Amino acid sequence: MTRLIALDVGEARIGVATCDTNGFLASPYKTIHVTRNEQKTWEAIQELINELEAESLVVGLPISLDGQIHGQGQRIQAFVERMKQHITLPVTFWDERLSTVEAQRLLTQRGQDGRERHQKRDGGRQRPQGKKRRRGHEIDALAATVILQDYLDHLGK
C-alpha cells in the first residue's frame, strides 16, 4: 500500500488527513488556509506530498443525497482540474457526503465540542474567536480523516 493524503476542500480551508503506510488507519494531519493566490495553495499541497512521501490523493467530493453533483461539487472538481496543472499525483474523488457531520459528531463524542457547556457557564456569550477558529480547523482535518478512512475501508473489502 502507498501513503495517501485526503483533502477536504472548502472555500476558506482544506482539511488534510493521511494514513499509515499499510493503508489501515487514517488520521488528521493539518489544515491549509486557502488564499486568493492559488499558487500558494498548490505549493502548500506539494509540501505536504513531499513531507509525507505521498503517492496518491483522495479528494472529498460532495454528492447530494439524490446522487447528483451540484454547485459545491462542481467547484471542487474545477479546483482539482486546476490543481492537476501543478501536482502530478493521481487523484481519486471520494463521496464525502456527511463527512463534516460525522466529524462534528466525533468531536462531540470526544468531548471537544463544548458549545453547550460554554453557553451555560458564560451566560451564552460568544466564545473567543481563537477557540472557534481552532474548532473549525479540527473539524476540517477530521472530515478529511473520515473521507480517507471510508476510502481505506472500501479498499479493504
From TrEMBL:
EC number, UniProt record: 3.1.-.-
Keyword Hydrolase: yes
Uppermost EC category: hydrolase
Pfam families given in the database record: RuvX
Residue ranges constituting the YqgF/RNase H-like domain according to the UniProt record: 2-103
Residues covered by region (Disordered): 107-136
Location, primary (coarse class): cytoplasm
Localization terms from the record: Cytoplasm
Superkingdom as given in the UniProt entry: Bacteria
Composition bias type Basic and acidic residues, residue spans: 112-125
Keywords assigned: Cytoplasm, Hydrolase, Nuclease, Ribosome biogenesis
Family: Belongs to the YqgF HJR family.
Role according to the record: Could be a nuclease involved in processing of the 5'-end of pre-16S rRNA.
Record-given protein name: Putative pre-16S rRNA nuclease
